[in-house]
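Journal club prep, shared notes

We agreed each person brings one worked example of a sequence with its structure written out as tokens. Mine is VWA domain-containing protein. I'm keeping it raw so we can talk through how to read the token line rather than staring at a rendered picture. Sequence first:
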Amino acid sequence: MKILFDFNNEVEKEAENPMARIPVVIIADTSSSMNGEKINTLNSEIENFYKEINNNSKNEILKYSLDLAVLGFKFDTQARETYPTVVNKFSVMESQKTPTFNAFGHTPLGSTVNTAIDMLEKRKEMYKLGGIQYYQPMLVIISDGDPTDSIESAAKRAIELSLKRKLSVYPVIIGDDGNLDNLQRFTPNKISKRIRTEDLPQVFKWLVSSAKKVSESSINFDINVNITKDWNDIING
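Then the structure, token by token:
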């Protein structure tokens, strides 16, 4: 009963914000292979991303419409296993604290994508209960290696939602080590990208500009083609 009460309170609180929401999940690979320049650059660029939205008056609308969740990986020292972890739960950017990532453990990408989809489905339920309009959800995956768990069910779910135009997935692999085909399995569109570490800023700049385009569009207007075209302009490493 308490869970229902808390959920209803959340719905009422969120419904006070009249802005249509842009639900976005960022999955950040925090496995050991990201240690060093990659994780440092990721931390620097996600900090810039938060500042660009919260401190730039040109992006004022995004402070209240971009509804973001951030996921990473957490290594359990006792079980010697790595699990998905919610770094930042869903909230509009005005309420968010900038995350800081540490690199350690493996790459449970399949279970993390499943967690992201579960969170998006619950978030959409909250929107509907609160009468909150929302745009097509976006999932951005930033990784540098191959998954260490099965991605079968997560990939199937992501593909099915994408084909129904209920999700857009944008996967990025940093460096030369990972197999890009693994990330490609999460989207029916051939848009997975391999980039250099120094090109990571382009991903976050794209996310800001895309969210802005979405926020300025009609709630029923298909913006997917436009932002995907911009995505294709990001440099391949």
